[in-house]
Design brief:
By secondary structure, this protein is α/β, with parallel strands linked by helices. The chain has 14 helices and 17 strands. The strands form two sheets. Strands 7, 8, 9, 10, 11, 12, 13, 14, 15, 16 and 17 form an eleven-stranded mixed sheet that branches. A hairpin with a 2-residue loop joins strand 9 and strand 10. The longest helix has 21 residues.
Length: about 425
Amino acid sequence: MEKIKVGLLGLGTVGTGVVRIIERHQDDLQRQIGCQIEVAKILVKNIEKDRTVEVSKDRITTDPDEIIYDDEIQIVIEVMGGIEEARDYILRSLDQGKHIVTANKNLMATHGREIIKKADEKKCDVFYEASVAGGIPIIRPLVESFSSDRIHKIMGIINGTTNFILTKMSEEGVLFEDVLKEAQALGYAEADPTADVGGLDAAYKIAILATLGFHADVDINDVSVEGITKISKQDVQYAKQLGYEIKLLGIAERDDERISLSVQPTMVKKSHMLASVQGAYNAVYVYGEAVGETMFYGPGAGEMPTATSVVADLVAVAKDMKLGVNGLRESRKLSEKNMKSENEIFSKYFVLVHVEDEVGVMAQIAQQFASCGISIDAVIQQPKNDKTFTEIMITTYLTSKANINQVIRNFNMMKAVRKVASVYRMED
C-alpha cells in the first residue's frame, strides 16, 4: 500500500486544521502507518472563498459524489457539521465500502446507531473521537480502556463556551449578558449561542458518552436539559460564599441498570477537580467500579485540538487497513434503555427563596421540606439591606428530584414566598 487517499467533507475551522496536520506531519504519519496519506478531494460550498490553508483548486469540489463514488478514496472525513446532509453522505460512503471519521456530535447522538449498524454490515470502521470534548481523548478510553470495568457515572464540563462564561462571572463578578457578548467577540460563542448556553450542545455529547459508557441505547431525547441563561451574578456569589463554583455539567448515572441523563448548572465543591477547570477548557470525570475516579482534561474545541483528534482517528483507521481488520473491532450490543424516574434520581440541592419578612416564615419553610421528606443541611438568612423581602438559602442532604420538585411547587403556592429564585444540584 503506497498511499491512502482521503476525502474531506468540509473545509471550515476543523477541516482546515486536518489539512494542516496531514501536510505538516506527513513524515510522522508515514512512520506510524507505513505509507503516505493524501487528502485527494475536499467538499466545499464555495470554491472561490479565501482560505487560510493553501489547497489547489483541482482538489476542491462542490459535488459530494466526486468523493463518495471515487474508488481511489478509501477514507471519508466528515467535518462539515449539520445532520441530514452529513448523514446522507456518510451512509452512501459506507455503501461504497469507505471508512468514516467524523467530528459531528449532533449526527452521532441522533443517528449514530444507524451509521454504526451500516458500518458493521459493510465491514467498515467508524471513528468519532472528535465529536466530544475536542482534543481530549475520551471516546476511545470508554470503548477500549474501560472495557473490563463497569462505569457507574460520567460527569463533565463538555462545553467550552459556557465554562468560559461561568469562569468570567465567578472571577470578575460580571453579568451573564455582558460575558456572552465578550465570548462572541472572542469567537468562543456563535452569533446565535442558543445551542451552547441552552445546554443542547452538552446534551448531544453526554448522550454519546452514556451510550458508550453504559452500552445502552440512549439518545438526545433521554437527556433532561437546562442551560445557564438564568444564572445570576448573585447565584455565583452565593455559591462562592458556600465554598462552591457553578458549572454546567453533563451527568450520566447508572445504578442497577437504571440510567439518568442530564445537563444542568450545578454547584461543584471547590475541592472537587472539576471546580478548578477554567475558561474554555473541558474535563470529563469517569467513575468506574474497579478503577475508581479518573479525569480527562484539556481544550474542548478549536481548530488544532479538534483536528488532532480527527487525525488520530484517521491513523487508527489506516492501521486497521494495514492489518486487514477494518470493521472487526468488538461491537458490543447495546442494551435497551431503562431510565430512572424522578423518584430514583438523588442529589443534594441548593434552594434560594425570597420571602416576606414576617414572624413564622422560617418555620413554614422548614415544615415544607419536612412534609416532602427532605432533610435540611443548612439555612442561611441573608442581610436584608435595602430589599423589601428576605432571602433565605437552604442546602439539603441527599434527596430525590421528585421531592425537591414537590417542595418547589409548594413554595410557589405559599403567600409568604414571593418567589423561588434559584434551585441547583450540588456535587461534593
